TrEMBL record:
It holds the Pfam family ADH_Fe_C. InterPro entries: ADH_Fe/GldA, ADH_Fe_C, ADH_Fe_CS, Alcohol_dehydrogenase_Fe, PhpC. PANTHER family: ALCOHOL DEHYDROGENASE, HYDROXYACID-OXOACID TRANSHYDROGENASE, MITOCHONDRIAL. The keyword Oxidoreductase applies. Keywords: Oxidoreductase. The lineage of its organism: Bacteria, Pseudomonadati, Pseudomonadota, Gammaproteobacteria, Vibrionales. This is Uncharacterized protein. Residues 7-172 form the Alcohol dehydrogenase iron-type/glycerol dehydrogenase GldA domain. Residues 183-345 form the Fe-containing alcohol dehydrogenase-like C-terminal domain. Belongs to the iron-containing alcohol dehydrogenase family. The keyword Oxidoreductase applies.
Amino acid sequence: MWQFHNPVNVIFGQGAITALTEQINGRSFALVTYDHPYFASLAVGIRESHSGCRVVLNQVSENPDISDMATICAAFSPYAAEVEVLVALGGGSVIDATKALAVAKTEPNHIRAVLTQGEKIIGTPLPIIAVPTTTGTGSEVTSWATIWDTSAGRKYSLVHPHLYPEVAICDPQLTYQLPVSLTIQTGLDALSHALESLWNKHRNPLSTQYAKRAIRLILKVLPKLKCEPTDSLLREQMMTASLLAGLAFSNTKTSIAHNISYAITIETGLAHGIACSFTLPAIVRSFANDDSDIADSLRSLFGTDLTDAACELEGWLAALGVATEPQCYGYSEERWQILVNDALSGERGKNFAGNSTTLLQSF
């Protein structure tokens, strides 16, 4: 028996941002975004078009940190009593920070307690409309957020069914100005989301189909986008792939590649999309002698010889400028084995449905 659940209303297409008016539906709202000229311009347009915008909150940083919440909550506090819905305009960091704000509202200590002390009384989060501007996070269709505590060297997951956005407005036009480097990083994050949902203990037939469709699209489209970043069709296809990957892992969560990546990002500052993707070939290789449904799914994507497939995936990543050897990121063999062992015992690492011993031998 299996089940698949995702309550997010998805509106997708060129110019889909125009649906924001209908989705706000006359409610007062706070717009959460980045402090960046491009997003400031978008925010001005939204504010001028919607009299219900009470405040623009642009205090979000990349990889939102628990220490940021005091600043965001303070900026939100004067308008909190009026705001009925939060609009998240940006990448995964914005959407994740918006989810944290939806819980914290004016009390940063509350979200800190939820994250650090296992506080289960989240209350009733504010509703969220997610408008992604990158093609990788999937946060617009999940019920969780990643919040970091860099001072303590930790990463937290905020999880609650009420944190699914009401609606995800996916407009490829909003990604046209995404730099090539971020296009690659976020695209690799989406690839990891999709593959992680395949070798996951919580996989199901529907999540697998979403994942496989996403993987095929990303493998085809992302190298082309590197060379043709202004191509509108490629941008639309990449946003489709990111959405499909998000739908896949919205029901499985991530697995070992992500759990490995958290320590790497904390220790080295490596961008998340790179940190969670350079291990993917080794994980594929670990299924080379496997006869499970996971290996069957991988063979349907990469061919019958998964050892050769892993080599081809390494070459595909190399063409995008991504090295796949842990040593390239400063890890000795001994330190790497310790890191992977620790990751296997982590919350996401426990979702890995493959053989841990074989995985360790695959690097």
